[in-house]
Design brief:
The protein is of the alpha/beta class. The protein is built from twelve helices and ten strands. Strand 1, helix 2 and strand 2 form a beta-alpha-beta unit. Helix 6 packs parallel to helix 12. The radius of gyration is 21 Å and the shape is globular.
Length: 371
């Protein structure tokens, strides 16, 4: 996905936008009449600092709706948008105290940690009139049991992606990522929790184990995997898998759906050992400078057309019932993103671990990378 500023989003070319909509470029204009929240220009001139994952919001590219630009036009609030690669990188930057953001979008276990460290502030749900759209299954979760600090943004699971022309038989187990037949054609995560979880699932462990011996066993398995790996990757996986430069990879289901659109040889499975489930949610840091503007921004993200635009762009499953039931949502009912009860694998959530365990597995991770 490419990022660029498109003239369709400027007021002076609404007519051009209408033409493009008729030619398949639809969805790039905000339907003002469909907005259900209340928005004002009382914070016009405010600069809202948003910190999000890369490629994680509809930005106007390829005919999509530019969420931040439309919010700016609607409210007069300028959005300063920057990105991070991992929860840990975001956390380190926030913990340094050198920066102040008004909006961040961490994953479940990181939200749990940041709440415990007083790094987040409660949200004013009286100003989030669109919160009712959040599916009940994504409320009251372990990381925010009282629904005080977070609003779900995207959800999903990890699975096994494989090139059907490069593997001898369709894999069903995470152990395929240790298969010597595919040496130098296997990709795995370049982050510790996701990588450890795959080894833990193979070993039948709890991915939130507090037993240090469990982490030792998982680390040994990951060291063995080093011999067959081509690389540890994050966003680089797109080019590698789409171009047929690797046979097997572990990654997020939504990203597979996107990759498959560019390479029909790719296939996907939730392995028999089970997998991990994530919920990324919108939060407001404790040191945010523009709280009221942040509330307006969150409510805007909860508009059905905005949520749908984000889900269409990211290819991740949406926790928003308006999007899930939107007949214009092209990924509605996708069996990978929204598996039925009988298709649903066994799942575990990541939880924040106590500092001793966290420090222990981080040292093991450094050893794995050096091995």
């Amino acid at each position: 996905m490419k990022k660029f500023t498109t003239a369709m989003l400027l007021t002076l070319v609404l007519a051009l936008g209408a033409i493009l909509a008729g030619c398949g470029g639809g969805g790039s204009q905000l339907d003002m009449e469909a907005l259900t929240g209340e928005y004002s220009r009382e914070f016009e001139g405010t600069e809202l600092n948003v910190f999000n994952w890369g490629e994680y919001i509809s930005d106007g590219s390829e005919g999509s709706l530019d969420v931040n630009t439309e919010f700016e036009k609607l409210t007069g609030i300028k959005v300063n948008y920057s990105t991070y690669e991992s929860n840990e990188a975001m956390y380190a930057k926030m913990k340094s105290g050198a920066v102040s953001y008004d909006i961040i979008i961490p994953s479940d276990y990181m939200i749990q940690r940041m709440i415990s460290e007083d790094m987040l502030q409660p949200l004013d749900f009286s100003k989030l009139s669109n919160y009712h759209y959040i599916d009940e299954q994504y409320k009251d979760l372990y990381f925010d049991p009282e629904n005080e600090y977070s609003v779900p943004y995207s959800v999903g699971m990890v699975g096994l992606i494989y090139n059907s022309t490069m593997v001898e038989e369709a894999p069903t187990s995470w152990t395929a990522m240790w298969d010597e037949r595919y040496t130098d054609d296997i990709l795995t995560f370049n982050n510790s929790r996701d990588s450890f979880s795959i080894a833990q699932l193979i070993l039948g462990q709890d991915v939130n184990s507090t037993n240090l011996e469990d982490w030792d066993a998982a680390a040994e398995l990951l060291k063995e995997q080093n011999d067959v790996l081509q690389a540890r990757v994050m966003d680089e996986i797109f080019n590698k898998m789409e171009a047929g430069n690797a046979a097997i990879a572990a990654y997020y289901a939504g990203d597979y759906v996107l990759m498959n659109g560019n390479n029909e040889d790719l296939a996907f499975v939730y392995p028999e050992e089970g997998t991990t489930y994530f919920v990324d949610s919108v939060c407001v840091p404790a040191n945010a400078q523009h709280y009221e503007a942040a509330m307006m921004y969150i409510n805007f993200l909860l508009e059905t057309q905005i949520s749908t635009a984000i889900a269409e762009y990211t290819y991740y499953a949406s926790p928003h019932t308006g999007t899930q039931n939107n007949p214009d949502y092209t990924l509605r009912g996708d069996e990978i993103l929204y598996p039925t009860e009988d298709q649903m694998p066994e799942v575990q959530y990541f939880e924040d671990l106590d500092p001793e365990v966290r420090s222990y597995y981080e040292k093991l991770w450094e050893e794995i990378l050096r091995d």
